[in-house]
Structure formats: structure tokens, C-alpha cells
TrEMBL record:
Pfam family, one: DnaB_bind
MF GO annotations: DNA binding; DNA-directed RNA polymerase activity; zinc ion binding
Native source organism of the sequence: Tepidimonas fonticaldi
Name of the gene: dnaG
Substrates-to-products reaction catalysed: ssDNA + n NTP = ssDNA/pppN(pN)n-1 hybrid + (n-1) diphosphate
Protein name: DNA primase
Length: 650
């Protein structure tokens, strides 16, 4: 069912973007616009602007831009439909949906009201548990003994459930309210209301929030040696374990800043890692990682690291996470697997060895492609034909779960090498084989392919356009010809899908003097970019050295016949605008040379940070045997830290 486009336009016209953004970002008036620190990347000088006249936001640092619906999707991780409903509720509108009867709409409205009531009960309980923590020296001492401070406890809303059987009867006026049972706070014994009691007693309480920050469940940990060690809320109308991740609401900004999400297994792992600087950690809730978990994380990042204990249970959990991640593992996404020593979980490891050792371990995490090979070869003697045949059978469902792309093609070659077969023979074998019987858990595919993600709307969008979900395609006897990289980039640029290199090239191509704003080090860094951007920047450097700043007409003639010609033309023709307003001006374009220069410097700063991160990884690999690499690693870390603080004087 779609949302009528006329309603979307009316909704955006009624919504006050300054008010919507202002609920999440501190804004101050600056001329005709409002200014604040960007919520999508770390910065000390505000470069995030909101235009009340155009109802459009733009960050000159990271390029984030859009309307009120875009902001809610990007900041809260909500899907398109959820963001529309949220915005409509804020402005007092009801979302009309085609192909829904009045009865269906009434039922859904009643369901939303009931869920909101349950969320209010959970919030009230969370406040009571937080107050009890402050009054319990024993609970405070326990958290201090685990290395936690009051600041981190406040960030994650930690609380304490007293040992009283009916503590919540002092919190809620009607302890017999059926909704207390429905939301999982109270347990009713055999239908006898007189035997009701609190579900959580004498436990440290970890509130579980959804992406909007609403408390939807709790996890409770015993302070002493009781059982079970952890107790979770049951499945309720608010809370579904297979869909929620503990700490995701608190980790949203850290995930964007770190560029990746770290998935662990326990509540304490999350808060302990956050305490020591790894605020981008989240945890599954006593269940295996699911495709829905992965889909939710991919709203915030394209890089996910799964961290597990190194024992047999940890390996099994990693294999289930692999099955959940495979359908999403496209060519622009990265999944990795970190295995700690068997005696450690992330909490104990970082407290024993320190944050630097944990960061080094993260840098050495196993890529998905290598883990696929390990799982395929699990229990197989590859020195024998029988062992290689079994590995081939175990590899087939793993490989088929991958979406088509370069990763799938390259992995096919590696699996063929593992099986000592030619690629053509392996493909023919898999194509001719009958569907295999259900194998071990780690080799099985998810029951259903994950749903597609929704493309963000522009101010003039008529309806959301869903992307095709990653398919689990059958093996093909022949791969399509590889498209030219420059042509692909040009098509992306023409559609406004611009990366950091695209945006830099767009500025220097449309502004002749922009190349003079950059240093020789900047020029060298840009020339090292992979094709087609690196060769384009190297060509621009040669043109600048020989002719100085040139207008586009001269550059256009020189570009003829170059392999990056189509990309350069597409970037120039985009006209510094991803979304055009009614007056034809590009709202995300800097309004003068000073702002454009600032955007260019910020893009270079972020590019240098990424280059230093790659250098750190390379140095870490040599640090164990090379003292010079250790010293250089520390220098690079310090240099990157200065850049991340906004110091561009290096």
C-alpha cells in the first residue's frame, strides 16, 4: 500500500523543519537560516544549516541534505513509512493509505494508541528503576566494580530493581492493570491476580530502547550468583527480540563517526566498551543475529563487525550471524568477524588488555569472504577428495545466499580453488545438483530474504521507490561482462549519487580557482585515489601546472578522449546541486566562494582521516615484529586524532 503523493507534499508543506530538526540538534539563528553542529559527523565548528524558507537542511562538512522526512530517516534510522507516520503525528495529520478499508485504518489506529500506552508504562518503570539505583549503595558498588562511571550509567539509563516482590505496586496506581502483564513488567501466576509479582527483582536494569528512544523492554542482570544471570522482557506488542538491538539508540552517532557498528552478545559488553571509547557497540538480546538485525544496522553504516567469544558457542553464534549477513553482503558493504580468546568476552578482554589492544584486535577481524571459506571447510580433510567434496557441498548454500556482484564472483574462484576444481566445473556441478537436504545450521539460508530498503525522498518526491532486495540467485553458467568503472561512476554522478571524490571533483571542475585553494599534499592525496578519480585529479594537476586555472570550456576540450571524460562531464553538469528548489538554485551548493572553500577543506580533511586509518591498519600488521612500525603507528594515531578534532594545520 502506498502513501498518496499529494499527502506527502501537503505534509512537507505543513511541517516546520526547524522545529523537527530542533528536537534533535541545538540550532541558533544565523541570518535567514539556522546553524548547528551536524548530527551525522563529528565536528567542532557548526556547518549544518537549516533553511526555514526552503524547508531544506544541508551540511557543508559531510554533504548530508534533505527535507523533514529525510532527516527523520537519517537521524533515527526509521524507514520511509515510519518516518512519514512520525512526522504526520507531530503535525496532527492522519496518513491516508490507498487500498485500506476504514475498518483496517481504525484497527491500526487503535493498535498504535495501545502501543503508545504500553510505552508510557515502560518509561515510568524505567524512571523508577533509575531512582532506585541512586538509592542502592550495593548496586552502585557493583557497577563501579565493573569499571562503570555515573556518566555511562546515565547515558544508557541503567537502573536497579529492588528485591521486593511487588515494588512496582508503589510505582503504578493500579497494580492489577492488565497492561502491566502485557508489557512484561509483571508476572501473573496461573491467572490468579493475587499471586502477581514483579518480573525483575534484585537486578541491574538495562532499558532497551527502539530507534526513537522509547523504552520497549528491559534486561536484568543479577548482582550475585543467582540464575538466570540475565533475564529479558518477554515478547510483547512493543518488544520483539529478533528485531531489536540493545544500545542502538545510544550508539547511532558513534556508529556514524566510527564508520562501523560492532555487534556483541551482552548488555555489559556494550556499556563496558562504551566506557572505554567504543560507543559504536550494540548487542543482540539473548537470541541469534537475524536478517532483521542486519537490515536495521545497515540504515546507519555499511560496515559491521561481529565480535564473539572464541569458544565453540561463539563460533556457532558467528555462523548464525554469517547466515543473516550473507544476503546483504553487496559489493559496497563490509562484514567482519572478531574472535576473542576462549576465556574472554569483549567486556573482560578490554578490561584485561586495554582499549588499544582491543582496537588492534578489531583491525585484524576476519573478513566475510575468508570466514565463508572457513565455514565451508569446517570438519573437512581438504587433503582428500572426500573432504573437498564435502566442503563443496557445505559451500553451495553459503555462496548462493550472496547477491550477484563482484564479491560473489571473486568468492566463486576462491571456492573453486578450495575444491581443486575449475570454476566452470564447480558452477556446472552446483547447477546440475538436486536441491540438497537441509544441512547444518551454519550452512542453511534464512527462511526469507530480507526486505528492501527505501530510497530517501526529495522535497518533490511523488512516492517512495523501494530498492530491489538482495536476491539469493541461483548459480549462472556465464558471468556478464564487467562494466567500465568510469562509465559506472558517470552514471552515478548523473543521478546525483556523489561520493567524497565526486564532490571534490565537482567543485574544482566548476570553479577554476578552486585548485589553487589546495596544497601540494592535497593534490598528491587526490592523485592517489583509485580510478577513475585518481587519474582525473592527476590530469587536472598537469593542466593546472601547465596552464593555470582554466574555464570549463577549455577543460572540456582537453578531456575529449580521456577515460574519465564521461565522469567529469556528468559531475560538471550536475551543477553543484543534488536537489533544485523552485527558483532553480541548488540549495546544497555553497552560496559564495568562502563557503565552497570551507566545504572543500572539510572534504579533504575527511579524506586524509580515511587515508590515515588505512595506514594504521597496515602498521598494526607489522607492529608485532617491527619497533619502527610501532612508533610510526603512534604518530599516525596522534595525527589522525588532531584531524578528527578539526585541527587542519598538519
Amino acid at each position: 500500500m502506498s502513501i498518496p503523493s499529494a499527502f506527502l507534499q501537503d505534509l512537507l508543506a505543513r511541517a516546520d523543519l526547524v522545529e523537527v530538526v530542533g528536537r534533535h540538534v541545538a540550532l541558533r539563528k544565523s541570518g535567514a537560516n539556522y546553524l548547528g553542529l551536524c548530527p551525522f559527523h563529528a565536528e567542532k565548528s557548526p556547518s549544518f544549516t537549516v533553511s526555514p524558507a526552503k524547508q531544506f537542511y544541508h551540511c557543508f562538512g559531510c554533504g548530508a541534505h534533505g527535507n523533514a522526512i529525510d532527516f527523520l530517516m537519517a537521524h533515527t534510522g526509521a524507514g520511509f513509512r515510519e518516518a512519514v507516520h512520525d512526522l504526520a503525528a507531530q503535525v496532527g495529520l492522519t496518513v491516508p493509505e490507498e487500498e485500506r478499508s476504514p475498518e483496517q485504518r481504525a484497527r491500526e489506529a487503535a493498535q498504535r494508541r495501545a502501543q503508545q500506552t504500553l510505552a508510557e508504562l515502560m518509561a515510568q518503570a524505567a524512571r523508577a528503576y533509575r531512582a532506585q539505583l541512586k538509592a542502592s549503595p550495593r548496586a552502585i558498588d557493583y557497577l563501579k566494580g565493573r569499571g562503570l562511571t555515573g556518566g555511562i550509567a546515565k547515558t544508557y539509563g541503567l537502573g536497579y530493581a529492588p528485591a521486593q516482590r511487588r515494588f512496582l505496586s508503589t510505582v503504578f496506581g493500579d497494580y492489577q492493570d492488565a497492561r502491566l502483564v502485557e508489557c512484561g513488567l509483571v508476572v501473573e501466576g496461573d491467572g490468579d491476580e493475587a499471586r502477581r509479582h514483579d518480573r525483575f527483582r534484585d537486578r541491574i536494569m538495562f532499558p532497551i530502547r527502539n530507534v526513537k528512544g522509547e523504552v520497549i523492554g528491559f534486561g536484568g542482570r543479577v548482582l550475585d550468583g543467582g540464575e538466570p544471570k540475565y533475564l529479558n522482557s518477554p515478547e510483547t506488542p512493543l518488544f520483539h527480540k529478533g528485531e531489536e538491538l540493545y544500545g542502538l539508540y545510544e550508539a547511532r552517532s558513534a556508529i556514524r563517526q566510527a564508520g562501523c557498528a560492532l555487534v556483541v552478545e551482552g548488555y555489559m559488553d556494550v556499556v563496558a566498551l562504551a566506557q572505554l571509547g567504543f560507543g559504536h557497540a550494540v548487542a543482540t538480546l539473548g537470541t541469534a543475529c537475524t536478517p532483521e538485525h542486519v537490515r536495521k544496522l545497515l540504515r546507519f553504516t555499511d560496515d559491521v563487525v561481529f565480535a564473539f567469544d572464541g569458544d565453540a558457542a561463539g563460533r556457532r553464534a558467528a555462523q548464525r550471524a554469517l547466515a543473516a549477513a550473507l544476503p546483504w553482503a553487496g559489493d559496497t558493504r563490509r562484514f567482519r568477524f572478531l574472535f576473542l580468546p576462549p576465556e574472554h568476552d569483549p567486556d573482560s578482554y578490554i578490561r584485561t588488555h586495554g582499549a588499544e589492544a582491543f582496537a588492534a584486535a578489531l583491525a585484524q577481524a576476519t573478513p566475510l569472504s575468508r570466514f565463508v571459506l572457513e565455514v565451508a571447510a569446517d570438519g573437512c580433510d581438504l587433503a582428500t577428495a572426500e573432504g573437498r567434496a564435502r566442503a563443496t557441498a557445505q559451500a553451495r548454500p553459503l555462496w548462493q545466499a550472496l547477491p550477484d556482484g563482484a564479491l560473489k564472483r571473486q568468492l566463486l574462484h576462491e571456492l573453486a580453488d578450495l575444491a581443486a576444481l575449475e570454476v566452470r566445473d564447480l558452477q556446472q556441478l552446483w547447477q546440475d545438483a538436486a536441491p540438497p537436504a537441509r544441512g547444518p545450521a551454519h550452512a542453511s539460508r534464512p527462511a526469507a530474504a530480507p526486505p528492501g530498503r527505501t530510497v530517501r525522498s526529495s522535497p518533490h518526491a511523488t512516492a517512495p521507490t523501494p530498492q530491489t532486495p538482495p536476491p539469493a540467485a541461483a548459480p549462472r553458467t556465464r558471468w556478464p561482462a564487467r562494466p567500465d568503472a568510469a562509465a559506472l561512476q558517470a552514471r552515478r554522478a548523473a543521478r546525483g549519487l556523489l561520493g567524497r571524490g565526486d564532490r571534490i571533483a565537482r567543485i574544482v571542475l566548476t570553479t577554476p580557482e578552486a585548485w589553487d585553494w589546495l596544497t601540494a599534499d592535497d593534490h598528491a592525496l587526490l592523485a592517489q585515489e583509485p580510478p577513475p578519480h585518481g587519474p582525473l585529479f592527476a590530469w587536472l594537476e598537469a593542466q593546472w601546472l601547465e596552464h593555470g586555472p582554466q574555464p570549463w570550456a577549455a577543460l572540456r576540450e582537453g578531456l575529449r578522449g580521456q577515460p574519465f571524460e564521461a565522469l567529469a562531464v556528468a559531475l560538471h553538469d550536475s551543477g553543484l546541486g543534488l536537489a533544485r528548489m523552485d527558483d532553480g538554485a541548488a540549495d546544497d551548493a555553497p552560496t559564495d566562494a568562502a563557503e565552497m572553500r570551507r566545504e572543500l577543506r572539510e572534504l579533504l580533511r575527511r579524506m586524509r582521516i580515511e587515508a590515515l586509518k588505512q595506514l594504521e591498519t597496515a602498521l598494526l600488521a607489522r607492529a608485532g615484529s617491527d619497533p619502527d612500525a610501532q612508533a610510526r603507528y603512534r604518530e599516525v594515531v596522534a595525527e589522525r586524532a588532531l584531524l578528527q578534532q578539526g585541527d587542519d594545520s598538519i
